[in-house]
Each structure stands twice: as structure tokens, then as C-alpha cells.
Predict the structure.
Amino acid sequence: MINKALIILCTLMITISFSQNRRFERYLTDIQNEFQVPQISADSLENIKPLILDIREKEEYDISHLKNAKYAGYYNFSLDQLNSIDKVTTIVVYCSVGYRSSKIAKKLIQAGFKDVRNLYGGIFKCVNQNREILKNSTSTDSLHTYNKKWARYITNKSIIKIQ
């Protein structure tokens, strides 16, 4: 009886996890369709040396961010902070899942930057793929999940979700 209950429980957990992943991927597709900005995968990011801009808020960035990412913010984002950047520089922007960063990518493209890409799935997809995140320059398992609704898209059980 215990073995049967355990099998049912495991099956239910796998089904819920699969459903969350499908919902997350659908949401990412919706973002792509809405903004129509070039995307880059975390795998492809390893092959180039872009300027990486974290478009999340300072509180989110301070908890953890991707390696070599510079804080740029969302609500206080200003093109002025990029005055010294050549317009042909490869720029990759990211946020939690890609919505905020897609909006900023669009602004950058409209401002004349030639090689702007949004990190597909944002930092959430990176941590779900077991990619390293940093607090300052030290590896961490903590991630600001923006809010409880978005936290459900973190499927990596080793991540400490902070809101």
C-alpha cells in the first residue's frame, strides 16, 4: 500500500513540474512574439564576450546576478548610462524571465544599438539549467524571484527563493 501511494505521489509531482515547465515556455514564447527582439540562449552566451546588463531592480541584483553582469535597472533605466558604449557593441540584457529586458532591448535597438539581444528565459532559465549565479563575486544559491507568482517557475530545488 505504501509503495502504491509513493508511486502515485511521485507521478503527481512529475506531472505538476512538467505542467509548470510548459507554462513557463509558453510565457517565454508570448514574450518573444510581443516584443520581436533578438534572443540568445545561455549556451550561446558562453561563445561571445558581450556587455551584459541586468535589467532587474537593485534589490534583485544585489541578491544574485549572472557573471560579468552590470546593474542597469528597469524603472530607473536611462540610455545616458550607455553614452560611452559604442553602438556596435554586443549587448545582452536579462531580467527574471525576459519581459522587462525585452522592453529595454527594444529601447536600445530604437536608440541605434546594432547588436542587442535578450537572454531567453532570463536568470530563471539559467538557474533551472544549474548555471552559476553570483552575489558580488561569490557563487550563491539565492535568487530574488520578484514575487510569489513568479517563484513557481524556479524548478531547481537547490535554489533559495527570496522575495
